Amino acid sequence: GAVVSQHPSWVICKSGTSVKIECRSLDFQATTMFWYRQFPKQSLMLMATSNEGSKATYEQGVEKDKFLINHASLTLSTLTVTSAHPEDSSFYICSANPGQEGTQYFGPGTRLLVL
Amino acid sequence: AQTVTQSQPEMSVQEAETVTLSCTYDTSESDYYLFWYKQPPSRQMILVIRQEAYKQQNATENRFSVNFQKAAKSFSLKISDSQLGDAAMYFCAYRSAFVGGGADGLTFGKGTHLIIQP
User: Fold this and answer.
1) Which residues of A40-55 are buried (b: 16+ CB within 10 A; e: fewer)?
2) Residue B99: pLDDT band by 50, 70, 90 thresholds?
3) How far is CA A59 from the centre of its chain?
4) Is A6 in the B-facing interface, judged by CB distances under 8 Å?
5) Number of CB atoms found within 10 A of residue B81's CB
């Protein structure tokens, strides 16, 4: 149980375009999902908390207009990187936790390369 | 704000031996969760073990166990009978037990690269 999927796993785009990444909880409902970013050989950094039916909560230093988050249902959150630039190239990972038990389960991640 | 420190960027152990990975954290909260996650080359984050701060008993999962010292704010991971498949990055993570208010996300340490020598 507690499976989280992400799509796409890999995306290459041109500078200035927008990219949407989907995160789905496959066998549980999640009112809250989380988006992390991981640069090569570094740790995961929390970008934002996605709340079903309400606005996302962004961490300090994360541009909410660049990283648009929509949590339209109890099993789907999307992250849209708007007007992507090469410095946005990174590994983006989502997570969710079933219930209030505290454990977060992670999706397999999305590698974004902006040319 | 909470911080998590992993002071060992890399550790190496012989197959079948035991290795301990260190983690310390800083928090003013009394109730929280601590985790060890494993990230193999595929980069999929895999939960290894979790510990609730209110529990005094150290968590164990098969060959994996923790030494949780709440007063010292220390949370080390012991891997017994190391196997080649244990080779990965290991991240220690903290999560507040307070639900809501933006306090649900995980705070990660910088990670420890574990090498298993055959």
Assistant:
1) eeebbbbbbbbbbeee
2) low
3) 13
4) no
5) 11
Q: Is the pLDDT assigned to residue A69 strictly greater than 90?
A: yes
- CA B73, CA B96: separation in Å to the nearest integer? 14
Interchain contact, A44 vs B50, CB within 8 Å: no
What is d(CA A75, CA A84) in angstroms, rounded to the nearest whole number?
Answer: 26
Residue A36: its chain B contacts at CB < 8 A? 105-106
Is B104's CB within 8 Å of A38's CB? no
What is the residue-wise DSSP string for A68-96? EEEEEETTEEEEEE-S--GGG-EEEEEEE
pLDDT in tens, A11-59: 999 999 999 999 999 999 988 899 999 998 899 999 999 988 888 999 9
Chain position carrying tokens 């190391």? B82
Distance between CA atoms of A38 and A46, rounded to whole angstroms?
A: 9
User: What are the C-alpha distances in Å from A63 to residues A82, B83, B92?
Assistant: 10, 42, 27
**CB-based contact, A86 to chain B, within 8 Å:** no
What is the distance, to the nearest Å, from the Cα of residue A70 to the centroid of all Cα atoms in its chain? 10
Count Cβ atoms below 10 Å from residue B4 Cβ, excluding itself: 22
- Between these two residues, A83 and A99, which has the higher pLDDT value? A83
Q: Residue A103 and residue B35: Cβ atoms within 8 Å?
A: yes
What residues of A are in contact with residue B105 (Cβ under 8 Å)?
34, 36, 46, 49, 59
Q: Kindly report the number of other CB atoms within 10 A of residue B13's CB atom.
A: 17
Task: Supply A62's token pair.
Answer: 């994360």
